[in-house]
Amino acid sequence: QLHVVESGGGLVQPGGSLRLSCAASGFTLDFYAIGWFRQAPGKEREAVSCIGSSGSSTNYGYFVKGRFTVSRDTANNTVYLQMNSLKPEDTAIYYCAVNSFCSRDSNLYDYWGQGTQVTVSS
């Protein structure tokens, strides 16, 4: 079973930044697409971003609007989600998930981390 762990969440003021990490153990992240999803209380899970295997492609949810950047650190077997210009509506639990290709459909992802809480508030 593929195992990933998210970290880097926390409390940040509006306009601030956070960098989320998705670290893998027991397998090489480069061989897989890694999706970032988020779920706010009372809302459905939504796709935030995805990076294809070996960084072949990236895509973002419409609400990102240039504020987030997804990237790979092959040496550390980690995928990052750099989030800038954070807004209160970005508050949610953020998850990374593993699949063979990028998709906005979370049902296609078989392996998920436990999530990391991001709270944007003054």
Structure, described:
The protein is an all-beta fold and 122 residues long. The chain is built from no helices and 11 strands. It has strands at 3-7, 10-12, 18-25, 33-39, 46-51, 58-60, 68-73, 78-83, 92-99, 111-112, 116-120. Strands 2, 4, 5, 6, 9, 10 and 11 form a 7-stranded mixed beta sheet that branches. It has a 4-stranded antiparallel beta sheet with strand order 1-3-8-7, with no helix packed on it. The model has no long low-confidence stretch (mean pLDDT 95).
Which strand-content bin applies to the residues?
A: over 45%
Number of helices: 0
Q: Average pLDDT, to the nearest integer?
A: 95
Per the principal axes of the C-alpha atoms, what is the gross shape? globular
Binned, the helix content reads: under 10%
For the report, how would you describe the main beta sheet? Answer: 7 strands, mixed
Number of strands: 11
Poorly predicted sequence stretches spanning 5 or more consecutive residues: none
In angstroms, what separates the terminal alpha carbons?
A: 40 Å
| Topology pattern, helix = H, strand = E | EEEEEEEEEEE
Structural class: mainly beta
Rg, nearest Å: 13 Å
Brief sketch in words of this structure:
It is built from no helices and 11 strands. The protein has strands at 3-7, 10-12, 18-25, 33-39, 46-51, 58-60, 68-73, 78-83, 92-99, 111-112, 116-120.
